[in-house]
Amino acid sequence: MIVRLSRIMRQLRRKKSVGLGVLLVVLIGSVVGNALTFFIFDSAQDPGVGDAFWYSVISITTIGYGDFSAESLGARIGTGVFIIVVGLSAFTAAIGMGVDWIIELQYKERSGMGSPSVDNHLLIINYPNERRVRQIVGEFLRDPKHKNDEIVIVTDQIESLPFVLSRVHFVRGSPLEEETYERAKASRARQAIILSTGYDDPNSDSVAASIVSILEHMNPEIVSVAEVLNADHALLFNGSKNVSLVYTFRMSNNLIVQEAQDPGVNLLTQAITSNEIEGTLASTKVAEDVTPSPRYRDVAKRLLDHDLNLVGIIREDSVHAMFNELSLVQNDRLVYISSERYDWETIRSFLG
Predict the structure, then answer these.
(1) pTM of this prediction?
(2) Residue 144: which of 338, 287, 305 has the closest Cα?
(3) Are 313 and 332 in contact (CB under 8 A)?
(4) CA dist 204 → 131, 198, 208, 215 (Å)
(5) Using an 8 Å Cβ cutoff, are 86 and 30 in contact?
(6) What pLDDT score does 1 carry?
(7) Model confidence over 146-165: pLDDT tens digits?
(8) Which domains, ranges and CATH numbers included, belong to the chain?
């Protein structure tokens, strides 16, 4: 239904474009015709070519400053034909079509039937509810490095976006159809967040896995984060290359148990997982081999001198919170608490 409506709208746009093109040709012809008759027949006023065109434009827009006027019979006939009969009709119709075009663009933006002009943007796919999506958008844009990023919300779960935020766009369509992602400029997107379709939907994880597959097919460089409701469904994502899985229920359950055992853990977790306060979790990938390879105990001490608190190492699919005799290796990902995010070059300079 959405695809059919999109095709109908494209056909209407083509017809309007043709109509607007014809009106512009008529409009230009009216201006040129009136300017020529004025220039030829009202030679007594000694108008220049520029004056003739100025008179035509001012007349056709109904402003009429009075600095020039048709005095000869030929010039008056030209003004009557080219301006009053043809020009004003074409000008009024063109203005009307222009206003309709602007209104249509606004409607398409609100209803998600358009195609936003974005690049290197974030896709947020699926719409479990307004509160979650708004919180995710707000949290993402709160980071100073991403505050000017463009975001495109992709879903067929709503008919129009219930909120208006700068740099946040809406594309309505099935998240399992390529045409939807073409309108969302997925081939030019930098990353994607795939949310669950709903906590009570048993097919949510399989839908998320399919979306990741479609995105990587259209854009092999895109980096995705997928919300997974059941940790046993991780196998669905085995064929995907650039995706991180977030197990919502497992994380929330673990946090509840931790808070019951060690009060205060919940408050700290909320703080370090939000961009709202100074000091949040960040990560940086080791981009090169370092020789001699320092031990992570020494790395942690050196980073602490620069207010970076190293809390863990991710090596392949393993997480190391206790460093023991572990040494820094290329492609390790350092997870730390800091007031800002650093690239590898900066962190290496901290290590000396």
Answers:
(1) 0.70
(2) 338
(3) yes
(4) 19, 7, 6, 17
(5) yes
(6) 46
(7) 989 999 999 999 988 888 88
(8) 2-111 (1.10.287.70), 122-251 (3.40.50.720), 279-351 (3.30.70)
